[in-house]
Design goal:
heterodimer, A: 305 residues, alpha/beta, D-Maltodextrin-Binding Protein, domain 2, 2 domains, 8-stranded mixed sheet, 3-stranded antiparallel sheet, 41% helix, elongated, B: 225 residues, mainly alpha, MetI-like fold, 8 helices, 78% helix, flat
Chain lengths: 305, 225
C-alpha cells in the first residue's frame, strides 16, 4: 500500500511538472523553433518563427528584413513538388520558388502543404506564398490573391497505339472512360453528347478499365494522362490539350498587393528569359520525355494563348 | 534493377529520414500520452463526483471531443486560433494540444468507468476504517482502478501513437509522410518501393508500440497479487 501511495505522489508531481513545462514551452516556442530552423528543411515546422505572428501577411520589406521567404509547396507530388532522397525539395514549383528567393535576395524556406490546407495556410499567413500546383478557380480567388500563371492544364485523351484517337470528334459513337466529378465528365457531356461515357469513381478503376479494353479511350487532366501513358507501353496521348484551359499560379494572402505586384513583375521579367521553359527542361522533361511538348504545359510571362 | 524496391530505402538519406520522421511521431505522442493519462485520471475522478454542474461540464467536454474528428480539432487549433485570436502556434505544439485534449477526454471516461466499477462496499469499508476521502482514494480505490484500467489505457495509447499520422495535414512531417514522399519521389524509377517503405513503417510502429504491450502485460502479472 505504501508503495502505491508513493507512486501516486510521484504521478501527481509529474503532472504538475509537465503542465508547467507545457506552459513554458508555449511561451518560449519562438525561441525553440528558431534554433531548429537551421537543420534540414522537411522534418519540422520552423516556418512559424519567420512568418507573421499576428495572422496578417508580411510585407515585401518584412520578408527582406527577415532574410527568409516562406513558401508552401507539395512534398509528394512529383514532378511538381517533392522531396528527393537527400531530403531536399525539388520539382517545377520548387524551381520557381528558388528563383523567387534568389531575386528577393533572401533564403527560402519550404513548408509542406496538402491540397486541402493550401488556402488556410495563406489565410492565416503561415506562409508568404503558395506554389503548390494551385489551379486558379473562382472560389479560391475569393479567398486568396492569385499572381500571373506559370503553368496551364487542360484535358488530354489517352488511347491504345493500335487505335489512336488524335481528335475528340473521332470519339463520336465510341466509348470514353472518365472519372466521376472531373472536368472531363462535364466537358464531354456538354460538348460531345454522342460520345458514350463510361464513368468510374476512382482514377485507378478508370485506368484499369482502359487496360482491359472496356473503352476506346480515357480522358482526364493532361498532366495525369501524359504521366500514365509513359508508364504503360502501348498507350499514347493522342490529344494533349482539349477543353477549357485551367491555369496554375502562385498565390498570396488576400490584400497583400505589394507582394502580389512583385510576383507579377517577376513573372514578366522571367518570361523574357524563357525561365519556365528552362524549369520544364530541368524538372518535367525527365518525366514526360517526348510524350509532351513544353508549350502545352508551360506559361511564359503570365500570358496564356 | 527496376524491381529492387528495397534499394530505395538506402538511397541518399532515405532511411535516416524515416527514422527522423519516427522521432517526430514518438516525441509528440509520448509527450501527449503522459500528459493525457495524468490529466485523464484527475478528470475521471471529477466525473464521478455528485456535483451536477461539474457533471454537465465534463459530459459536454467528453461528447464534444468524441464527436469532433481529430482532424477538425487539429485544423481548429492550428488555423482557427490564428484566424480568431491571432495566436500562431507551431504545428507540433498544436498537435500536442489536440492530442492532450483528446487523450484526456477518452482517458477520463475510462477512469470514470473503472472507478464506478469498484463495488460500493470498497468505498464504504474505507470510510468505516476512518480514512479521509483522499486517503480512501489513494489507498483503496485508485490501486484497484489502475489494475482494471490498464488494458483499455494501453489501447488508447497505441491508438494515439498511430493517429499522429494525421498531423501531416498541419505541416508536421512524421514517419508516414516521409514514407509517402520517398514512394512518390521514386514512383517512376522503382514502382515496387511502396511495399518496402510501408513495410519498414509497419516495423517502426511495431517497435514503438510493442514495448508498451509488454510493459502492460508485466504490470498485469505483477499486480495480480
Amino acid at each position: 500500500m505504501k508503495k502505491t501511495s508513493k507512486l501516486i505522489a510521484l504521478l501527481l508531481s509529474i503532472t504538475l511538472m509537465v503542465i508547467s513545462l507545457v506552459a513554458c514551452q508555449e511561451s518560449s516556442d519562438t525561441k525553440d523553433t528558431a534554433g531548429k530552423s537551421e537543420t534540414a528543411a522537411p522534418s519540422d515546422t520552423a516556418a512559424n518563427d519567420v512568418a507573421a505572428d499576428s495572422g496578417t501577411a508580411r510585407t515585401l520589406d518584412q520578408i527582406k528584413e527577415s532574410g527568409k521567404v516562406v513558401i508552401g509547396v507539395f512534398s509528394d507530388k512529383k514532378p511538381f513538388g517533392y522531396v528527393d532522397e537527400n531530403g531536399v525539395y525539388q520539382g517545377y514549383d520548387v524551381y520557381y520558388g528558388n528563383r523567387i528567393a534568389k531575386d528577393l535576395g533572401v533564403e527560402v524556406e519550404y513548408v509542406p502543404v496538402e491540397a486541402a490546407s493550401r488556402v488556410e495556410y495563406l489565410v492565416t499567413a503561415k506562409v508568404d506564398i503558395i506554389l503548390a500546383n494551385f489551379t486558379v478557380t473562382k472560389e479560391r480567388a475569393e479567398q486568396v490573391d492569385f499572381a500571373l500563371p506559370y503553368m496551364k492544364v487542360a484535358l488530354g485523351i489517352v488511347s491504345p497505339d493500335t487505335a489512336l484517337i488524335t481528335d475528340a470528334s473521332q470519339l463520336n459513337g465510341k466509348t470514353l472512360i472518365v472519372s466521376k466529378g472531373t472536368t472531363a465528365e462535364t466537358y464531354f457531356t456538354e460538348n460531345f453528347p454522342e460520345v458514350k461515357l463510361l464513368k468510374f469513381d476512382q482514377y485507378s478503376e478508370a485506368y484499369n478499365a482502359l487496360l482491359d479494353g472496356r473503352g476506346d479511350a480515357l480522358s482526364t487532366d493532361n498532366t495525369e494522362v501524359l504521366a500514365w501513358a509513359l508508364e504503360n507501353k502501348g498507350f499514347s496521348v493522342g490529344v494533349e490539350t482539349l477543353g477549357s484551359l485551367d491555369t496554375i499560379a502562385g498565390a498570396v494572402q488576400k490584400g497583400n498587393t505589394e507582394l502580389l505586384n512583385w510576383l507579377n513583375d517577376e513573372i514578366k521579367t522571367l518570361g523574357e528569359e524563357q525561365f519556365f521553359h528552362a524549369a520544364y527542361e530541368a524538372t518535367l522533361a525527365p518525366v514526360y520525355g517526348d510524350a509532351a511538348s513544353p508549350d502545352s504545359l508551360v506559361v511564359e510571362g503570365g500570358i496564356v494563348e | 534493377m527496376q524491381d529492387m524496391g528495397i534499394e530505395v530505402l538506402f538511397q541518399g538519406r532515405n532511411f535516416v529520414r524515416l527514422l527522423e520522421g519516427l522521432w517526430v511521431t514518438v516525441r509528440i505522442s509520448v509527450f501527449s500520452v503522459i500528459v493525457s493519462i495524468l490529466l485523464g485520471i484527475i478528470l475521471g475522478m471529477i466525473m464521478t463526483m455528485k456535483n451536477p454542474l461539474l457533471r454537465i461540464i465534463t459530459r459536454c467536454y467528453l461528447e464534444f471531443v468524441r464527436i469532433m474528428p481529430q482532424l477538425v480539432l487539429l485544423f481548429l487549433v492550428y488555423f482557427g486560433l490564428t484566424k480568431m485570436f491571432r495566436i500562431n502556434l507551431s504545428g507540433e505544439i498544436s498537435a500536442i494540444i489536440v492530442f492532450v485534449i483528446w487523450g484526456t477526454a477518452e482517458m477520463g471516461d475510462l477512469v470514470r468507468g473503472a472507478l464506478t466499477s469498484i463495488p460500493v462496499h470498497q468505498y464504504e469499508s474505507g470510510k468505516a476504517l476512518g480514512l479521509t476521502t483522499v486517503q480512501n482514494y489513494c489507498y483503496v480505490i485508485i490501486p484497484q482502478t489502475i489494475r482494471r484500467l490498464l488494458p483499455q489505457a494501453i489501447n488508447l495509447v497505441t491508438r494515439m501513437i498511430k493517429t499522429t499520422s494525421l498531423i501531416v495535414l498541419i505541416g508536421v512531417v512524421e514517419v508516414v509522410k516521409v514514407g509517402q514522399q520517398i514512394i512518390e519521389a521514386s514512383r517512376l524509377t522503382s514502382p515496387s518501393a511502396a511495399v518496402w517503405v510501408y513495410g519498414v513503417i509497419f516495423f517502426l510502429y511495431f517497435i514503438v508500440c510493442y514495448p508498451i504491450s509488454i510493459l502492460s502485460k508485466r504490470l498485469e502479472v505483477k499486480w495480480r497479487n
